[in-house]
Every structure is written in structure tokens, then in C-alpha cells.
Design a protein that fits this description.
Elements: E1 6-8, E2 11-13, E3 17-19, H1 28-36, E4 41-43, E5 47-48, E6 61-64, E7 81-84, H2 93-109, E8 113-119, H3 123-136, E9 140-145, H4 165-169, H5 171-184, E10 189-193, H6 200-210, E11 214-217, E12 221-223, E13 226-227, E14 232-233, E15 239-243, H7 247-260, E16 264-267, H8 274-283, E17 287-290, H9 292-297, H10 300-316, H11 321-324, H12 335-341, E18 345-349, H13 359-362, E19 369-372, E20 375-378, H14 388-392, E21 398-402, H15 406-416
Bound molecules: flavin mononucleotide and iron/sulfur cluster (2 copies).
Length: about 425
């Protein structure tokens, strides 16, 4: 079996699966159940000193695009979009510290790292609550720089200033909180960023400079969906949302921040299955948070993910998380680099496999497909090598091949579309 341990800044986690801040770790009982599930770490429900983040409307959650298969109604589909209106714990940080105190011993006994999440409004509060949580036994802190969501024309609240997202959007304020805490706090501090509207590489660099042990990317986005039968927005209008479709955006930032900073990256928002963790780790993450997927599937799901990750690692011959870390990040290239690195392609049809369905023809935007004897035929000189047809062909009859050179490609394109070729290009 592979070694699933992973380094998260100065911490070592027994595996890369973390439950993200939310209801699964909001009480002593729940934290202990999270520990029993086998998670590498737990982020507690955020406790905040902001009163209006402790209350929320009902119903709280809405699953959209969650399509149950009528033939297998007990199966959980992978795809969904989740909206909610839950903010922070209904407990203030002081009573929440008691929850931490009562569960931290259990976490230590079972080698599950406990990360305390909190959010404050003033520097004095940040310092006091951080110290309170450390004294209660957390292994690390996660500063919630994400709740609530950005004030918009729909928000009349002046109180949104200096709460949560304010710090993601105001690097100097974030820097100040971190560097002040750094003077007194001895456990690693991670910062959870809000994904709405900032250059996260800049924010992360700033946090690194201020002494953060790493960042968590991300909380929910502010999103909106509409029930077209009633014309009403789901869950009362713009609000927190996450789901399968968010993964590529999270992953892009994970990759870029891991590239720019030399500290830990906890990925999340859009990771649903075990293989999402592999993708995130290959993109540069050290560990991966799951919140809504665990809420939907329940805690037994964690053991399944650990089993499936282990099986994958064994099948692929990877001995440790270290072996897959950054694998994809190191193979990312800019457009300029690609000009020299990658040869152009053209498509070819295997007439034995082609059934003449014309699926490929409909999606070739370079007019490169003709038909002969009801079989598709690629006009090599027109083919731009985009590869769409080969991915769409129901018979897998189309394969892509390298052209000899860039020049061959441009010559082919120029002879196919002479009006588009730059004047004198091949003279
Ligand atoms: C119901 C609910 C409550 C949440 N509460 C918190 C919270 O208290 N603190 C926090 O940092 N994030 C909170 N989150 C955000 C999650 O930790 C996570 O960042 C987000 O849902 C994206 O990850 P996911 O796609 O795995 O759900 C909450 C999410 C949900 C769905
Ligand atoms: S999509 Fe495939 S099977 Fe259909 S015509 Fe094109 S090459 Fe032939
Ligand atoms: S690779 Fe692109 S351009 Fe070439 S034939 Fe297929 S769809 Fe057309």
C-alpha cells in the first residue's frame, strides 16, 4: 500500500483528505465522528464574532442539477450545484473554543489534525480568539477571510466592511492581521480565501510574506440560479454556491499559487471524488478539502475515498503522495513556449471503422471533412488539427498525427484558405 502521508506546511497529515469548514465539524460529537471516518485533518465550523453571520434563513440548502438515475435511485450522482445560505456557527468563538477543547484530545489520539476556523472584526478579537483556540488544543488555525460574500447593490449592510472577504480583497489589511498574529501565535496559520474577484497569486504572496503557513483555495463563490418555473431565484438570490463545475477554476489558481509561493496549499471547492484529490495534488496542492460532497454522501464516504486512492496509487506504482505532487504543474506551458514545443497535427480516418454517420462533419469548423463512398475523408490541406472530430466520433475512427513542421501546417492552411493567409507569408 502506498504511503498517503502528506506535508501541510509544518504539519504531517496521515492522508490528504480534509473536511472543509462547515456543519460536519460543528459539535464535539461531529468532530469525533469525522476523526473516526479516517480523515487526515478536520477544519472546524467557523465561529465568528459577527452576530448576523450566526443566523440564517430556512431552508438552508438547495441541490440543483442533482439528477438521480431512476433506475438506481440510491446511487449518488457526481454532478451537482449546491447553493446555501449558511454562514458561521451559531456559537460564538468563546463557546466554540470549548467544543475544540473537548475534542482536541480525541483528534490527537487518532492522529487527525484539528484546524480551528474563525473570523473576527477587530485586531484585538483576532488575537484573543486565535490564542483561545491555541489554548484549547488546535494543531493549526484557518483564518476565515471569506464569509460573508461581497457586498453588492443588493446588500445594504455597512457592517460587511472588515469581515471575511474584506481581507481577501484588501491585501494590506490581511497582511496586518497575519503579521500581528504571527508575533504571538505558535501554531501554523492558514488563510481561507474568498474566490470572488481578486488576483489570488498577489494575495497569496502577501500572506506568505506576512508569515502564513499556507492558503486554502477556496470558499464558495457568490452565485445565482433561477427556478424558471416560478421565476424566483433559488435560495433567496445571490449567495454561496459550489459544485462539480467549480473544480477547474479552483485548480487553475491552486496551480498558479503553488507556482508562485513556497508555502502549503489546501485545495477545495469542486473536489467531489477521490480522483479530484489526485488532480489537485498533481496541480500543486498539498491536501484537499471536501465539504458539500461529504455532507451529501456522509462520513463513510471518506473510507471509500481512502480505499480508492490507495488502489489507484498501487495500480499506477506510485509509492507516496510525494511521487504525484506537482506532476501536472511542472508540465504546464505558456502559449509562447508551446510554439516551439508542440508540432501541429492533422486528422486521419480509419475507413474500416467509419460508419458514415457524419457526426464529425457537423463539428469541423475548418471544412476539412468530405465523404467518399459514405466514408469520411479528411482533406489534409484544410485540417487545422483541432482534434474535435476525433473526440466526437462515436466509432473512435479518427486519429491525430503530427505534421512535419509548423511550416507544413501553415502552407496547408494557406492553400486551403488563400484569402486568409498573410500576404507574402510563404514567398
Ligand atoms: C452548508 C455549508 C456551510 C459552510 N460553512 C462554512 C464555514 O463555516 N466556514 C468555512 O470556512 N467554510 C464553510 N463552508 C464552505 C466549505 O468549507 C467549502 O469551502 C465550500 O463548500 C467549497 O467546497 P466543496 O465544493 O467541497 O463544498 C460551508 C459550505 C457549506 C456547503
Ligand atoms: S464521426 Fe466517425 S464514424 Fe461518423 S462519419 Fe465521422 S469518422 Fe465516420
Ligand atoms: S481535426 Fe479539426 S480541423 Fe481537422 S478534420 Fe477534425 S475537426 Fe476538422
Amino acid at each position: 500500500m502506498a504511503d498517503l502521508r502528506t506535508k501541510l506546511g509544518p504539519l504531517t497529515l496521515k492522508n490528504p483528505f480534509i473536511v472543509g469548514g462547515g456543519p460536519p465539524a460543528g459539535t464535539v460529537e461531529h468532530i469525533k465522528k469525522c476523526v473516526d471516518s479516517g480523515l487526515g485533518a478536520i477544519v472546524t465550523k467557523t465561529a465568528s464574532t459577527v452576530w448576523y453571520l450566526q443566523r440564517y434563513p430556512r431552508p438552508l440548502y438547495k441541490l440543483i442539477d442533482y439528477k438521480k438515475d431512476p433506475k438506481h435511485p440510491f446511487d449518488t450522482p457526481k454532478d451537482y450545484f449546491w447553493m446555501h445560505r449558511e454562514h458561521n456557527s451559531c456559537y460564538e468563538p468563546i463557546p466554540f473554543a470549548e467544543i475544540i477543547r473537548q475534542s482536541s484530545g480525541y483528534c490527537k489520539e487518532h492522529d487527525c489534525k484539528l484546524i480551528g476556523s474563525f473570523s473576527c472584526k477587530t485586531m484585538e478579537e483576532w488575537k484573543n480568539i486565535a490564542q483561545l483556540y491555541v489554548d484549547a488544543g488546535v494543531d493549526a488555525l484557518e483564518l476565515n477571510f471569506c464569509c460573508p460574500f461581497p457586498p453588492t447593490g443588493l446588500s445594504k449592510s455597512e457592517e460587511d466592511n472588515h469581515v471575511g472577504i474584506y481581507y481577501t480583497m484588501h491585501p494590506e489589511a490581511a497582511y496586518e492581521v497575519l503579521s500581528e498574529l504571527k508575533k504571538i501565535i505558535r501554531v501554523p496559520m492558514f488563510v481561507k480565501m474568498n474566490p470572488d474577484g481578486a488576483n489570488f497569486v498577489t494575495v497569496a504572496k502577501n500572506l506568505e510574506k506576512a508569515g502564513a503557513a499556507g492558503v486554502t483555495m477556496f470558499a464558495n463563490n457568490k452565485t445565482m440560479r433561477v427556478d424558471i418555473k416560478t421565476g424566483k431565484p433559488y435560495i433567496y438570490g445571490p449567495g454561496p454556491g459550489t459544485g462539480t463545475g467549480m473544480k477547474p477554476i479552483s485548480m487553475r489558481w491552486v496551480c498558479e499559487v503553488a507556482d508562485a509561493c513556497d508555502f502549503a496549499v489546501m485545495a477545495g471547492r469542486g473536489a467531489v471524488t477521490w480522483d479530484d484529490a489526485v488532480e489537485f495534488i498533481m496541480s500543486g496542492a498539498d491536501a484537499v478539502q471536501y465539504c458539500s460532497p461529504i455532507m451529501i454522501r456522509g462520513l463513510p464516504y471518506v473510507k471509500e475515498m481512502i480505499r480508492d486512492l490507495n488502489n489507484f496509487m498501487d495500480e499506477m506504482g506510485y509509492e507516496s503522495i510525494e511521487a504525484i505532487k506537482d506532476m501536472a504543474r511542472k508540465q504546464c506551458y505558456s502559449n509562447q513556449q508551446l510554439v516551439d514545443l508542440v508540432k501541429p497535427l492533422y486528422a486521419e480516418v480509419d475507413p474500416e471503422k467509419c460508419i458514415g454517420c457524419r457526426r464529425c462533419e457537423r463539428s469541423c469548423w475548418y471544412d476539412a471533412i468530405s465523404f467518399n463512398d459514405r466514408k469520411a475523408l479528411i482533406i489534409k490541406n484544410h485540417c487545422a488539427g483541432c482534434s474535435l472530430c476525433s473526440q466526437l466520433c462515436p466509432q473512435d475512427a479518427i486519429t491525430m498525427h503530427e505534421r512535419k513542421s509548423d511550416k507544413e501546417h501553415f502552407q496547408a492552411m494557406a492553400s486551403a484558405h488563400p484569402d486568409l493567409a498573410p500576404k507574402g507569408f510563404f514567398d
